[in-house]
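Lab notebook page, bench 4
Experiment: in silico fold of construct C2
Operator: M.H.
Input chain length: 361 residues
Purpose: comparison with the prior construct
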Amino acid sequence: MKVRLTGLGALSACLLAAAMLTGCAKKRDLHIYTWADYISPEVVAAFEKANNCRVVIDTFDTNEAMYAKLKAGGVGYDMLFPSSYMVKLLAKEGLIVALDHTKCPSLRKNFYRPYAKMLPEDPELKYAAPYSSSPTILFYDPKKIPAGVEVNTWAVLGNPAFKGRISMLDDMREVIGAGLMYKGYSINSTNPAEIEAAVEQVLAWKENVRKFDSESYKTEVADGSTWIGQGFGQVARQVILGESEDGSDARPDLAYAYPKEGFTESCEEMVITSTAKNPDLAYKLIEFLYSNVEMGMANMKYVLGMLPCQPAIDALDPKFRDAVVAKPEIMAFGQVILGLESIPGAMELYTKAWDRIRATK
C-alpha cells in the first residue's frame, strides 16, 4: 500500500532527502601552494568544518621554485602564498587575478594600516591579501659564540670560528641582498658594480657556509650541526617558544639577531590563481582570517608572524604582540625586496650572480 505524504509530512520528507544528499555530496578541495609549516592546523580544521571542504596543501622552499613550477604547468592550485616581491610578476604574467573585494570585505576594512609601507608595489591590496610578515635574521646558539663576538652583523658570517657551521637561505634575493646590505647598498640595487661587490662578499662568506637551504636551519641550529643560520624570524620564534601547546619543546637557550647593516622585512601574501577551480573557497579563507579574530590570533600564534589584521593584533596578549610586531626602532633598518622584472636586464644580472655563487667551490 502506497502512503501519500501531505502537509508537514511531505515537507519533512523533502528536508530529510535534501539533508541526505548534502551529506553525501563530495567535499570540494581548496588547493594551496605555500611554505612549510605556514598555516595553523587549528585554522585549517575550523575552515574545513565551516565550509564543508577539504584543504590540500603543497609546499615550496623558495619563491623561484614556486614560480618555476607554475611556469612549467603547475596549474592545480587555487591559492599561492608568495613573498610580496613576486606578486607583480605573477600578475603581469596572468598567473593570478585581481581580487574581488566584495568577496572578502574584511580585508580592507580590518587591514593594519601601518603595514602599508611594507607593500610599496600593491598598497591598495589589488592582487594580494597580506598573510604574515617576518624579518630575515641570524638564528644562532649563544653557547657556540665565542666571548666578544658580535652576532648582530652580517660580518659574523666571515668569522673563521664558524667555518662549516653556517647556513644561508637557498634564496637568490635574500643571499645577494645580505651582501648588498653589508656593503651599504640597497637590497634592490641594479648597479652591476654593486651587485659584483655583493657577490664577492658572499663568496668570501661561502668559505664558512656548509649549505644553502631554506628549511633545515630550523632544526639544525637546535641540534648543533649549524651554529648560525640565516633565516626567518618567525621560524626562529617557533623553535625558541616551542610548537607544542604546553611549550615542552621550547628552546629558550637559542636566540636570533637583526643584522645592524640592514635586514629584509618580507611579507607573504595570499593570492588567487587564474586557473583556480574553487576561487570562492580562496576568498572565503581570506575573509575567514580577516573577519574571525580568534582564527587570526590562532594563526599568528602558530606561525609566529604578524597577520596585519587590526582587530586580531589588538586582541593579542601584549607580550606576544611585542614579540611578533616589530618595534619602530628595529623596523627602521628593514628593507623590502621589490620585483625587478620591469627593469631591463635586472633579473638576468641577479640570475647570473646567483649562478656564480652556487657554482663556485
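Observations: The chain has a mean pLDDT of 90. Strands lie at 28-35, 53-60, 79-80, 129-140, 166-168, 209-212, 228-232, 255-257, 263-272, 334-335.
Next step: discuss at group meeting.
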